[in-house]
# Entry
Amino acid sequence: MGFLYSQFFVTPKLPKRSFAGETIIVTGSNIGLGKEAARHIASLGVGKLILAVRSIQKGEEAKRDIVNTTKVDASTIEVWQLDLGSFESVKDFAKRASALPRIDVLLENAGIAAEKFQLMEGHESTVTVNVISTFLLAFLMVPKLKEVSKQYNIQPRLVIVSSEVHGYTDLPERKADKIFEELDVQSRADMGSRYPVSKLLEVLVVREIAPKLEGTGVIMNMLNPGLCHSGLSRDYTGLFSYFFEFMKFCIARRTDVGARTLVCSAAAGGESHGKYMHDGLVNEGEVSKFVKSEEGVKTRQRVWAELKDILNKIEPGVTGNL
Ligand SMILES: NC(=O)c1ccc[n+]([C@@H]2O[C@H](COP(=O)([O-])OP(=O)(O)OC[C@H]3O[C@@H](n4cnc5c(N)ncnc54)[C@H](OP(=O)(O)O)[C@@H]3O)[C@@H](O)[C@H]2O)c1
# Structure
C-alpha cells in the first residue's frame, strides 16, 4: 500500500541546500539514478564531483551531458574507474579516494539485478556487486571519512542505495548453516529473489554497523528511491521482462525524480544515521517486518559475522576501521 501510494501520489523534493565546497563521490553514475543524482548535485552547486564508473568512456559521456545541461565548470567533475566486480579495483579506488583533501559524501549507488547466476570474485555476482564490494568500499573509506570529520568539523555522509524490495524476501538462505556460502551454490540459487535478497542484506548490514559508527562524526544512512525508470532491468528476459516493463510504464518515477531521494540522503543530517529513507525522508515504518522481527535481528547478526569474515579475507583487518 505504501509502495503504490508513493508511486502515484508522492513526488520527492530536492533539498534546497547547495554542496558548494564539498566533494561528492557517486558510484554507478554514468546512467540511471546515479547519473541523475550527479546532475542534481551539479545543479545545486558542488566543489568536486567524482563519477565513479565501470567504464571511463561511459563516464566521460555522462560528464559531458551533465556539464552541457547544468553549465557547471567541466573541471568540477572528474571520472574515476571503479568496478565493483573486482576487489582489486575497489581497493585501488579507495586508495586514490583516500588521498583526496576531503570527502563529504560517498554515495554508494552502483548495483545490478542479475537474472543469470554468474560468479564474480568467487561469489554470485549480485552479492559481490551489491553487498560485498559495496561494504568493502565503505569500510576502506571509513578512516578517511572519520579523518575529514575531525579535520573540517563536518559530518560526512556514507549513503547506501537500497530498495523497498528488501521487504519482498525473508532470506530463505538463512536456513543454511552459512548464508553467503548458500547464496553461492548455483544449483540451489533462486535468481528470481536474488536482487531483493541483496537489498535486504544491505538493510541488515547498515542496521548492524551504523551504531558502531556513532560518535565518529560519520553519518551512514540508506534509502529507497521507489520504482524508477533506469537501466536496472536491462538484462531481464522472457515474460517477466514484459510484465516489469509494463509495470514501469504504468507507475515508475522519472529517473530524475527518483534520483532526488539519493540527493536527500546525501544532504541528510544526524537524524538519518543508521536509518532508512523513503520518499527522501527518514521513515523507519517502511523497513520490513522481517528486518524488525526477532528472527530478523538474529539473521542480521549472522549476516554481519559472515560478511566480516569475507571482508577481512579480502583486506585483512578492514572491518576494524569502524
Ligand atoms: N530503478 C529502480 O527502480 C530502483 C529501485 C530501488 C533501488 N534501486 C537501486 O538504485 C541503484 C541504481 O540503479 P539504477 O536503477 O539507476 O540502475 P542502472 O541504470 O542500471 O544503473 C546502475 C549503475 O551501476 C553501475 N554498475 C553496475 N555494475 C557495476 C560494477 N560492477 N561496478 C561499478 N558500477 C557498476 C552501472 O554501470 P554500467 O552502466 O557500466 O553497467 C550503472 O552506472 C541500484 O543500487 C539499485 O539497486 C533502483
